[in-house]
Design a protein that fits this description.
Layout: H1 2-28, E1 40-42, H2 76-85, E2 89-96, E3 102-104, H3 125-129, H4 157-163, E4 168-173, H5 178-190, E5 199-202, E6 213-214, E7 217-218, E8 220-221, H6 223-236, E9 250-253, H7 255-258, H8 266-274, E10 278-284, E11 299-303, H9 310-314
Parallel strand pairs: 1-2, 1-11, 2-4, 4-5, 5-8, 9-10, 10-11
Antiparallel strand pairs: 2-3, 6-7
């Protein structure tokens, strides 16, 4: 009985010591200030918003909300509006076409958003660019189609790069097999030297080794690698150790996890910057809220709500 009691006491003492050690490391960790303000990334080039509570992941074009945002995603018009509004970078979806080009478009098939049919990557670029990219967009269950016949078309990546040679572009390659990744990297190498470093990539985890580093900084991120970063930081971010998975990259934080990250927002952003990383809230198609404006704390935002970002930008 005494031996069992002694074991319990020892366990409790060890737990207490561990808790005190965690508190000591957390409370005495050095404070840092973010060297850089947060940056704004236009999700899918900017576009319409969704209610994620009702969105069923089928046809985005038929489930958008009525908002002040003027354009639809992944078009030259939306990119122009984002750049004019003062966004620092744009995020685009990309398909490798049947004739070896790269088209800026999200959906795997054409039936939902356009007046075409079939698999996107099985079409040539000319076929894709003959379509009305605004044809299927409606916010009132098909009562009206405000973007139909208004000149929206599917641009090529080359058009975007030529139009904005110095713009930072985040690419989400939808047709993401190794052969297609290599074709995209070959395209980048064909650009003038000053433009080759303008890209950041969302990639499949197995394809990350194909993407080059820029010095020590990574040029690609997968959802799996980002989850590893968030998981490791949740486990021991309170300590003075910064996870290797979070270093030298862009860290994309889903809003639901943000409050659980030690030092959020300013200390987390500052520690990330000291380790070569930038931090972004993954807002996507959500309407921007005032509490999301953490730019002064070093937290960027990935958002399609170009109209909603006006108040953020006017404050900076």
């Amino acid at each position: 009985m005494k031996r069992k009691l002694l074991s319990v006491v020892l366990v409790l003492v060890l737990v207490l010591v561990l808790v005190l050690a965690i508190l000591f490391l957390a409370l005495t960790a050095p404070g840092y200030e973010s060297a850089e303000k947060g940056r704004l990334v236009a999700y899918r080039g900017g576009g319409q918003l969704l209610d994620y509570a009702t969105f069923d992941h089928r046809c985005i074009a038929s489930q958008i909300l009525e908002t002040p945002n003027r354009h639809i995603e992944n078009t030259l018009q939306s990119i122009d509006a984002s750049v004019a509004a003062g966004f620092d970078a744009i995020h685009l979806n990309l398909h490798h076409t049947a004739d070896g080009k790269f088209a800026v478009f999200h959906d795997w098939t054409l039936d939902c958003a356009t007046d075409g049919k079939g698999v996107t990557s099985e079409q040539t670029l000319d076929q894709l660019q003959s379509l009305d990219a605004g044809y299927g967009y409606t916010f009132d269950d098909g009562e009206s189609f405000p973007w139909r016949g208004k000149g929206y078309r599917i641009p090529s990546l080359d058009e975007v790069v030529t139009r904005y040679p110095r713009l930072e572009i985040w690419l989400n390659l939808k047709t993401a097999d190794a052969k297609t990744v290599k074709a995209l990297l070959d395209y980048k190498r064909s650009l003038p030297p000053g433009q080759r470093n303008n890209f950041f990539h969302f990639a499949a985890d197995e394809n990350l080794p194909l993407y080059e580093h820029r010095g020590s900084r990574r040029t690609a991120l997968s959802m799996a690698s980002d989850k590893r970063c968030i998981r490791d930081y949740l486990l021991y971010g309170w300590s003075r150790f910064f996870p290797k998975a979070c270093a030298n990259t862009n860290i994309v934080v889903p809003p639901k996890f943000a409050g659980y990250l030690w030092g959020w927002p300013q200390q987390f952003a500052a520690r990330a910057q000291r380790h070569g990383s930038r931090v972004y809230l993954w807002s996507k198609h959500r309407k921007l809220q005032p509490e999301s404006n953490l730019l002064d704390s070093g937290i960027g935002i990935i958002t399609g709500d170009i109209a909603g970002a006006d108040s953020f930008l006017s404050a900076h």
